[in-house]
Design a protein that fits this description.
By secondary structure, this protein is of the alpha/beta class. The chain has a domain at 126-304: von Willebrand factor, type A domain (Rossmann fold, 3-Layer(aba) Sandwich), CATH 3.40.50.410. It contains eleven helices and 15 strands. The protein has helices spanning 2-20, 22-26, 31-34, 125-128, 148-161, 187-195, 205-217, 240-249, 260-263, 266-279, 289-304; strands at residues 47-54, 69-73, 76-78, 80-85, 91-92, 133-139, 167-173, 177-184, 223-229, 252-259, 283-286, 307-311, 321-328, 337-339, 343-345. The strands form three sheets. It has a six-stranded mixed sheet with strand order 8-7-6-9-10-11, with helices on both faces. Strands 5-4-12-1-14 form a five-stranded antiparallel sheet, with no helix packed on it. The protein has a four-stranded antiparallel sheet with strand order 3-2-13-15. α8 (240-249) links the parallel β9 and β10.
Length: 367
């Protein structure tokens, strides 16, 4: 018992240190992190960004064009290579990194941009979600005993709402990760995975989320992880900082849907909010079954209204953490808010395949 309490206290101490360094982490000052060779590093050739634009009331802003966005990496201006708005066909603007030709004029007729409600009738939901690859990670630990069936129902409804998504994967976790349904376009496989989940023991959220991010890293295009967690992490061997950094570096957006049980634990609340924020996602805390459904509906609408931009990084001597800044161009657009990831880590040789000494347990399915 004494040993377990010691490990819990040590873990909380570590998480508190990470949270206290939040300003350091979010602002991209990574000089110390760049010297830590134990971190997971990735080689990036094309940087992909998922960008949400909202007004002061939280309504999504539609109708923006590539020239409305300004991207810098370590304060170095970048040129948009491809652009996608709300599931419309991808517009390729730059052929190769070596191209010195300015991007061609936008194909869309310029018009005054304004905020629109999320239920924009001009686009079918299926079209707006086209191309998204969604990984769902479900907490089956002993924290979930009381609301297990209700959570399954909420997730099943969420899967039904993703009819326009490219592919969906369903994983569950307690102490180990179970890949119940690998990334697939077959919704029946996903539903079977949801219904066949059973309650487990302790919660190793960060271990299992790290493995899920690594799976998502192998996928091209938009990739999103939606986590349903009913409580804090009490069994992981990796810190949430490593998970968040790999998600940022691989362009993976993390959404966290948690219950009041997790919100009652201040450290977990702060970690969930911070991890989702730095990857461009959101964190939700549901007090009841109805709130869970609303959270999943909000995520679905967010996915439907993301702008997808990419760029080939301009020459940059920085081989460590690179800070990305996305802004809107023009005085009339300054009233809007942008949400996206704030950077990534670069190394000549990819280390995404490293499992950081994590060995899947006996209930883990194959990727």
């Amino acid at each position: 018992m004494g040993s377990a309490n010691g490990r819990t206290m040590a873990k909380r101490f570590f998480l508190c240190l990470w949270l206290l360094s939040g300003l350091f982490f979010i602002n991209g000052d990574r000089s110390k992190a760049q010297e830590d060779t134990s971190r997971i590093l990735v080689n990036v050739v094309l940087v992909q960004l998922n960008v949400a634009v909202t007004d002061r009331k939280g309504n999504y802003v539609n109708g923006l064009r590539p020239e409305d966005f300004s991207i810098t990496e370590d304060k170095i201006p970048q040129r948009v290579a491809s652009f996608e708005a709300g599931g419309e066909p991808v517009r390729k603007l730059i052929d190769s990194p070596a191209s010195n030709t300015p991007p061609p004029p936008a194909a869309v007729t310029p018009s005054e941009t304004g905020s629109q409600d999320a239920s924009d009738p001009s686009k079918a939901p299926e079209l707006r979600l086209a191309g998204a690859n969604v990984f769902i990670l479900f907490d089956t630990s002993n924290y979930m005993y009381r609301g297990f069936v209700f959570a399954q129902d909420a997730i099943a409804d969420f899967v039904r709402s993703l009819e326009g998504a490219n592919k969906i994967a369903f994983y569950s976790y307690s102490r180990d990760l179970s890949r119940a349904a690998s990334l697939t376009a077959d919704r029946s496989q996903v539903f079977r995975g949801v219904r066949n989940t059973v309650a487990g023991d302790d919660a190793a959220l960060y271990n299992c989320l790290l493995l899920t991010v690594k799976d998502a890293a192998q996928v091209k295009g938009r990739k999103v992880i939606v986590v349903f967690s009913n409580g804090p992490d009490n069994a992981s061997s990796v810190p949430p900082e490593d998970v968040a950094e790999l998600a940022q570096s691989t362009g993976t957006v993390i959404y966290m849907v948690s219950t009041q049980l997790a919100q009652d634990e201040p450290v977990s609340t702060a970690v969930f909010e911070r991890m989702s924020k730095v990857t461009g996602g959101k964190a939700y805390f549901a007090k009841n079954w109805g709130d869970e459904k609303k959270a999943f509906a909000s995520i679905r609408e967010d996915l439907a209204h993301l702008y997808a931009l990419s760029y080939y990084p301009q020459p940059n001597p920085n081989r460590g953490w690179r800070t990305i800044t996305v802004r809107l161009v023009g005085e009339r657009l300054q009233k809007y808010h942008i949400r996206t990831r704030d950077g990534y880590r670069l190394l000549q040789q990819s280390q995404v395949s490293s499992d950081m000494n994590l060995t899947p347990g006996p209930d883990s399915g194959s990727k």
